[in-house]
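#dry-run=false #mode=assembly
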Amino acid sequence: MDNGIIATVAALSALNGFLAWLLVLAEKWLADYGECTIRINGERSVRVRGGLSLLSALAGEKIFLPSACGGRGTCAFCKCKVTEGAGPLLPTELPMLNKKERAGHVRLSCQVKVKRDLSVEIPESLFRIREYQAEVGLIRDLTHDTKLIRLTLVDPSEILFKPGQYIQLESKPYEKIRQKVMRAYSVASPSSETKSLDLIIRLVPDGICTTWVHRHLKQGERVRFIGPMGDFCLHEGEGEIILVAGGSGMAPMVSLLAEIREKQIRRKVTYFFGALAKRDLFYLDEMHTFEKDIQDFRFVPALSSPAPDDVWNGETGLITTPLRSYLEKENRAAAQGYLCGSPGMIQACIKVMNACGISEDRIFFDPFS
Amino acid sequence: MKGLSPGILFFASIFTGNILLTYFLGMCSFLAVSGKIRTAAGLGLAVTFVMAITSALNWAVYTYILVPLGVAYLTTIVFIVVIAAVVQLLEMIVERYSEGLYLNLGIFLPLITVNCAILGAALFMVIRKYTFIQSVAFGTGSGIGWLLAIVALAGIRERINEEKIPPALRGPGIALIISGIMAMAFIGFSGMVQIQ
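#status=ok
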C-alpha cells in the first residue's frame, strides 16, 4: 500500500518535473531570438533581447508607448508604425486596425514580437513619456468614495505635461493581489505646477489599483508612474468651451480650467458636472474660485438621484438633461465640447451635442476604460 | 482491437466513428470557431496536428510508464498534463521555425490545450487497447474527422448566415441543429466498419 502511494507520487512528480524542465529548456532555447536592433524614426537604434513584445522591449529601453490593457490587445492605445520586420498582421490585431492603418503599417506593439531587426516610427511627443519616482505628499477624502492623491516628484523632480493628459500609476501587491498593475489617471493640477501632480481617484468596486490607493496607500510612500500621455487637451477656437464630466472625470477639467485662467483665454466656458447625490459633489470651493477668476465661466452641477435629505435647488437628472436644455437655447455651432467620463455618458453627450449642431470634429473626449 | 488494420481504423475514425459527430467531443470550439471556413480550417488543422502527436506520445507514456509502474488509474490526469505541455511546446516551436504556419495554425494552439476531443482520442486508444501504429492512425484520423466536421459546419453557417433565420435560433441554436443533422448523415457511414 505504502509502496503504491510512493510509486504514484514519484511517477507523477517525475513526469511533471520532466515536462516542466522541457518547457523551461524550450523557453530558453526556442523563445530566445538573440539580440535584435530596433531602429526608431530612422534616427537612433536600441539593442534589445528578442522574443519580447515590441511594447515590452521598448519599455525596457525607457520608451513608453501608452497602454491601458496591459498588453492583452484590447485597448489599442499602443499602436505604432512598424515599417520593417514585423511580419504579417496577426488575427488579434485585425479588429483594432482600420483599413487606412492596415495599409500604413500601423501595428499593435503589444502583439508584435521582436524576432528580428525592426524599424518603427514613434511620434516625437511620446519620447517625453518616461518613468517617474514620486512620493505621496497628501491623501485627502473628496467624497465618501473619491480621494485626492498628491504625488511629489522625486526622480526626475519635474514633469512637463499638457493640461488634460494622464499618467499611468503602478500599484503595489497587497493582500491576495500579487501582481502590479498600471492604471491611467488624469492629472488634476495645473501644468504650471511641475513639481507635483494631483490625481482624483474614485474607488471602483473590486478595482485592483483603486482599492490599493484607497485602502493601502499611505502618505510618504514611494510610488512609480509613467507619463504624461494622451491627446485630450484644449484646442484653438473662438466659440464657447463646453466641459462635461462625471465623477472623477473632474480631474482633467480642473487642469483645463487652470490653463484657461493662467493664459487668460477670453472664451465663454460652461462646465456641466454630473454626480449621483450631494455627497458625491466635490471641488465646489475650487469651482467658485474659478468662477471669480475666469471672466465668463459658469459651473453647473447636476444630481441624478439626490438623497431624500439633500437640500438641492440646482439641476437634477442625468447630465444630458441640463446640457440639452442649455444647448437648445441658442445656436452654439461654434462651440467646442470637451467630455470626460464613462463611455456611456460620453456617447449620450455626443448625441445631444450633435443634435444641437456641434459637429463631431468639435467634440473631444477622454473615456474611462 | 488487433484485428483492425491501421488503414481501416484511420478511415473509420474519420467517417464512421467521427469523434465530433458520433461522440460529440470538442463541442465548445466546434461551436465557437465555426463562423468562417478559413478560421475553422486553421483550428481543425491545429487539432489534427496536436491529436496525431499527443496520441503517439500518450501511448508511449501509458505503455512504458503508467502500466509498468502500476499507476494506470492516473491516466486521465497524466494525459491532460502531457497534452498541455506538448501544446505549449508546439506553439513555441512553430512560432520559432515557421511564421506562416504560426499565423495560420499557431494562434489556435492555446485554444485547444483543453479541447476534450484530444483527451478523448487518447483515452479511447487506452480503452480499446490499440497498438502504437493503430493509435497514431486513430489519432490522425480523429483529427481529420474533427477538421472535416468543423469545416463543413463553417461552410453551412457561412451560407445560412446570409439567409433569414428565426431570431430564436440565431447563433449556437442553428449551429446545434445543423450539427445534429450532420451527425445523422454520418450515421449513414456506420454500416461500413464499426470501431466500438
